[in-house]
Amino acid sequence: MMAARQSAMTSPARPTSGGAESARPGRSNRPAHEPIRRCLASGERLPQDQLLRFVVGPENELVPDLAARLPGRGLWIRPERSLLEKALARGLFARAARAPVKAAPDLVERVGKGLRRRCQDRLGIARRAGLVLAGHDKVRSLLEKGAAVALLQAADGSPAQRARLRNLGLGNKPDLKVIEILSAAELGDALGRAPCVHVALLPGGSAERVILDCARLAAHDVQHDAESRLRDERFGASSKTID
Length: 243
What we know:
This protein has 243 residues and is α+β, with helices and mostly antiparallel strands. The protein has a domain at 2-20 and 127-235: CATH 3.30.1330.30. Helices cover 44% and strands 14% of the residues. Strands 1-9-8-10-7 form a 5-stranded mixed β-sheet, with helices on both faces. A 3-stranded antiparallel β-sheet has the order 5-4-6. It has a two-stranded antiparallel sheet with strand order 2-3. Helix 6 links the parallel strand 8 (150-153) and strand 9 (177-179). Helix 5 (136-145) runs parallel beside helix 6. The longest helix is centred in the middle third of the chain and has 22 residues, at 107-128.
């Protein structure tokens, strides 16, 4: 499972600070000291941007709070699907809340879909901030200069094409974040264009938030990514998308 997670998103999940969007060059829009929370399933104390927050609603229903903004006491957990399933099966949310908790049968799937949609929304915001380049040639040029902070490639794109740009990017910038968790259609939808395979992010606060949310999705979607890679290795994947 660890290998699958690393294939979906390489290099550390936490990006360096700084950004073109900030009023002060080199300053990040994120807090200088990220709050630390305890994962109720693993017991680890981690920065909250690496965790998922849940709250208990008025009817004792367990509500995912992916933006960490809903009122109420937060229940924090690492985003891995297996830990969510463990917490639900063992009643860990109810124990942490010290109250009865009702969870929808499809809660884990809803969390995954919510994370995926959030990554697309974040990418759209980064595009409107002028931090996104899409298309093979534009992305390649940026990677050659070592100017990108992240390379997003469609999980269903050509493995050979993806590997070439991945190697180029990491060769020129070893700390480049490589994210291969969204499909070509999802990348295109996020950017308001036809499906695309290759996207690069320039430095900036919105780019940081894309990276952070994609890291949470990659952690949650480890099994999905492993199955996709296995299909690619067995049958090959030829991109039929526009880029």
